[in-house]
Amino acid sequence: MTVPLIQFVNIKKNFETQEVLKGVHLSIYGGKITTIIGKSGTGKSVLLKHMIGLIKPDSGQILINGEPIHLLSHEKIKVFQKELSYMFQDNALFDSMTIYENIALPLSEKRYYPKNRIKDKVMYQMRELGLLGSEEKFPAQLSGGMKKRVALARALVTDPKIILFDEPTTGLDPIRKKNVHTMIKEYQEKFEFTAVIVSHDIPDIFNISQRIAMLDEGIIKFEGSKENVLNSHSTIVNAFIRGEEA
Amino acid sequence: MVTNFFEKTGEMTIRQVRSCGRLFLFFITGVINVFILPVQFGKIIEHTWFIGAKSFFVIALTGVFTGMVLGLQGYYSLAKFGSEAGLGAAVAITLVRELGPVLTAIMVTARAGSAMAAEIGVMRISEQIDALKTMHINPVRFLFTPRLIASIISFPLLTALFNVIGIIGGYISGSILLGINQYDYMDAVIKNIDIGDINGGFLKSFVFSVVVTTICCYRGYYTHLYSGFGARGVSMSTTNAVVQSCIFILIFDYIITFFLV
Amino acid sequence: MNKRKIEFYVGLFVVLGLICSSYLFVVLGEIGFIRDTRYPVYGFFTSVSGLKKGARVEMAGVEIGIVSNVMIDKERLLAKVELKIDKNMTLSEDVIASVKTSGIIGQKYVDIAPGGSDILLEPGQEIYNTESSLDIESLVRKFIFNNDKK
């Protein structure tokens, strides 16, 4: 069995008095798409933010390639984080910047990137996502679906090895939804990145993911391959997939 | 009951000490990043435009009326002692040493400081600051440092503008409307201001620029800690930023004056 | 607002601000070239009560310089006044400097009465003939006591 790329061991996190994560065990394997499902407000985004280091756990361990993160050197963590990219649920676009500047931001703030290479990369992403023509517009002038695609372009522009998607398709129409899913799958096959997706699009999301994890009441109730999920006998998982209260 | 009281006191003390520490770290991070290359020229120019160039007319308007009212008040006070010729001195000294730096700082706080707190606050609650972190961009360097530099450029220039326009305002009410000899007026201005007064005024506006920008950006940046998420949080941190900036302008004004005189 | 326009307004703002600053520094603060157009001479007075730095120096009612410093001479226990006289104005050695008042409670200034000597005062030299400021209080006292004696 291969060593997981990111492994959560007994992660706990409280906000004030509210327990959000009550001991999460989860493994993310390299080169695969892992989807985290679960009811709204169960801490899926919080879990995702632990992976990129925006939130630090109260207790428990995070292992990177089998090594505990607090034992890794500062440089190693930096190298690992450079390969990460995060797509926010509410896009988190910079409303004082144009679309072009938004997508180029992760590159233009780095000194070693020549201007014309940034332009090539940004234009490539914009073409792929059908955003050409809105370079000079501001995020407030775009529709919700367009903003999602801008956020996606910004996440992809650095050629990351690991991408964390926080509900990438919420607010999109079924066609765009399918497009985003296909695109994630195509990109993943092309660049072989690791993806972690938080999503409510059941069962569509199952078509593109290899692994599924279900978060409920602060713990992972189920974790396994897609086939396992569909054949699972767990009542909670089955009920959730059918959209019923367990 | 008693333990409860101690608990509350302790909790409050710890919170205050923590927030002082946070403010200090925020400030130091911003200052250090001024000296880290590359210089963020584009952003500095953009903020100088917003803080400085766009405040131009407000400052000019405030300046001319402040000068005019000083001329008017000063004229009637000095006329009691028959020394109207000293009006220029009264107007110029008040402006250069005190009102110029203070009123400029307060006007710019109202115009640009509130905008800084609100803009950064909105960026905080819409996760834009988190997004910067995930892109390995230091948000303090990205948001605070260029505003700090732009303020340090803008405040002294606006103060100089305020002083000159204020002196002209005093000339309008004193000389044109009330009929003091215009040479007497300008003579009194030139004779009674020396280099120490002007240096002191510029020192004040420099200190105010740092104080105002730090407080406003800090309040916006930590909106989620002090005022909670949501539009309510942003409005509260904006109000706090403006009120605290004004209070600290006056406190620092007293401290600097105390050490200068 | 496009970038060019922003840069234009920032440039305009900075230039105007710098003009105002330099006006304050050079004209009001009197640094730089203005100081170089004057030369210093000194005068010793028994009393300069009320005379301040920056006061006018006049000859025949016309301003020819300023008082640049007022201090006490510790050896002679007299007031030492530094006068900055305009370069194009030459003073002869035997001029008389006196501290005077414009109006009855107005500002003090230094009046210089012309002399007749051919020897000119060099920069940094002392004016020997001085008259101290008229102290109105002591004058009034003298006047009252004189009346009493009669």
What does this structure look like?
The complex is a heterotrimer of chains A (246), B (261) and C (150). In chain A, the strands form two sheets. Chain A has a six-stranded mixed beta sheet, sandwiched between helices. Chain A has two domains: 1-83 and 162-246, Rossmann fold; 92-159, no CATH class. With 246 residues, chain A is of the alpha/beta class. Chain A has helices at 44-52, 74-82, 99-108, 115-128, 144-156, 174-191, 204-208, 226-230, 235-242, and strands at 6-15, 18-28, 33-37, 59-64, 67-68, 84-87, 162-166, 194-198, 211-216, 219-225. In chain A, strand 7 (162-166), helix 6 and strand 8 (194-198) form a beta-alpha-beta unit. Chain B is mostly helical and 261 residues long. Helices cover 87% and strands 0% of the residues of chain B. Chain B has ten helices and no strands. The longest helix of chain B has 39 residues, at 87-125. Chain C has two domains: 1-36; 38-135. Chain C has an eight-stranded mixed beta sheet with strand order 7-1-4-3-2-6-5-8. The model of chain C has no long low-confidence stretch (mean pLDDT 78). The chains are: A alpha/beta (246), B mainly alpha (261), C alpha/beta (150). Chains in contact: A-B, B-C. Chains B and C meet through helix 2, helix 6, helix 7 and helix 8 of B and helix 1 of C.
